Structure formats: C-alpha cells, structure tokens
Amino acid sequence: xxxxxxxxxxxxxxxxxxxxxxxxxxxxxxxxxxxxxxxxxxxxxxxxxxxxxxxxxxxxxxxxxxxxxxxxxxxxxxxxxxxxxxxxxxxxxxxxxxxxxxxxxxxxxx
Amino acid sequence: xxxxxxxxxxxxxxxxxxxxxxxxxxxxxxxxxxxxxxxxxxxxxxxxxxxxxxxxxxxxxxxxxxxxxxxxxxxxxxxxxxxxxxxxxxxxxxxxxxxxxxxxxxxxxxxxxxxx
Lengths: 110, 116
Prior knowledge:
The structure holds two protein chains of two kinds. By secondary structure, chain A is mainly beta. Chain A is built from no helices and eleven strands. In chain A, the strands form two sheets. In chain A, strands 2, 4, 5, 9, 10 and 11 form a six-stranded mixed β-sheet that branches. In chain A, strand 6 (55-57) and strand 7 (60-65) form a beta hairpin. The relative contact order of chain A is 0.35. Chain B is mainly beta. Helix content of chain B is 0%, strand content 48%. Chain B is built from no helices and eleven strands. Chain B has strands spanning 5-7, 10-13, 19-24, 31-37, 43-50, 53-56, 65-68, 75-79, 88-95, 106-107, 111-115. In chain B, strands 2, 4, 5, 6, 9, 10 and 11 form a seven-stranded mixed β-sheet that branches. Chains A and B meet through strand 5 and strand 10 of A and strand 4, strand 5 and strand 9 of B.
C-alpha cells in the first residue's frame, strides 16, 4: 500500500462546479498535512495546510479525519485557473521529509 | 529576495555521462531537500541536507547518486553514468526550520534531465 494515495483523475468539471478530492495515508503517526498545487510540471506550490479542526481559505476547504486517515480538499465555484494537479502531502515524522501523493488532476471546462 | 534557484533548467546527457544539478536555497535557509518526479508520477523524496551534513538519504538510489551541500556554494546533486531511467524532473526545496516547526517548503523551478 502506498504511503499517500490519491485518485489520479482527471476530474473534468464545468466552471462554477464544486469538486472534492480525497487522499488517504497509511502511517497513523503522521503529523502534518498539506495540499500543494502543481501546474504543467512546474514546481509545486503550497495551497494550504490542513489542520485537525478543518480550515478554509476562500473557495478552498481542507479537512482531516485522523480516525480514518484521510484528508480532503473541497473547491467551490471552480474557475478555469483552478485547472492543475493537486498533491496531497504528509509529513510523517519530525524529520522534515514530506511524502507526496501521486496527485489528482483537475480540469475545469468553460 | 530571490527564491530557490536551480540550474540548469534543462540538461541533456548521453548514457554514461555525468549530470550535475545545482540548487541555491533561499537566503537564510539552511535546509535543502531534493525530490525527483518521473513522468506521470508524484514527487519522490531523495535526500535532505543541512550545511556540510546529510541528514536523511533514505530516498537516494544506492549507486551512482550523491548529494552535497558545502559550507559555501550551492547544493549539488550528482548522477554518475546516467541511464535513460534517470530522465526526470529534479526539484530542490529549502526550508528555514526543521523538526516540529516545519511548515512549508519553498521549491525551485526544477531541472529537467533528459538522457539520450
């Protein structure tokens, strides 16, 4: 089983739609969780951290379920510019090594 | 304040040659990480370095690959006797903090290595 697992997609949605991605992780000792965004093989950029209580940043909402070992990302009112690959990232120990999921590709259509 | 600088952006090598990839972290950052991304795959951790120290190299292939982060100058990822399977995007990231205080990594634009 992969340490961090994501549905690769692609998710094809129309503009304005709401879309959700899930990600599961295998190590219950994982401490920190993030969503990164990657465009067209460019460098990954931090989208948001994921906190135990859940957190929201504009149209983006992230949630963590420690009992079931998954995190989610909800995007409301999708824009064309949201088209990208979304990477689920887990920091398993205090040693800074981030473990990346394979990414979920989102394509927002006009 | 320049970000993480990687060079070259693109590197073409023939099988058997050496590849040297450079990474200068953000000013004030003393922690450097190297990740590799194969086509259609996610990023895979390779190595974590601080100045003059390799902290974690659990993701580095046992042969042909080495990394350093000297007291002066950029971090270098060196691949000897490259093979076609080494073709990938190599991303460097830096962080000012370590351990439980770690919050985010700042990534460079990557080096795309193509082995002919």
